[in-house]
Amino acid sequence: MNDVRYRGWNMEEHIVIVERLENNGYVNNGYIVNVGNKKQLESARNWGRTYTSKENIVTGGRLSVEVAPLEHLYSNKGFKLTIQQAPTHSYQGGKLPVRMCLIEAPDGKKFNIGIDTEILFRILQQSTVVNGVVQEEMSFVRHGTALGMVHKDMIEYKYAEEDKQIKNKMNTKKTNKYIPGHKYLTLTLESIYLGKIYQWAETEVLKKRNGNYGALVPDAYVMTIYDKPKVKHMLLESFYFNREDMKDLKTFDEILEVYRLKVADNISKYKSSNRMSGYGLSDGIDIINSHHSLVDKTPSRVDGGKVLDMENSQENLDKFLTDWREQMINLGKTMKNTDKNLSCEKLFYSGIDKSPFENMTDADYDDIYKLVNPSVKFYIQNEKGEILYER
Question: Scanning 58, 87, 284, 374, which has its CA 20 to 30 A from the CA of 269?
Answer without folding.
Answer: 374
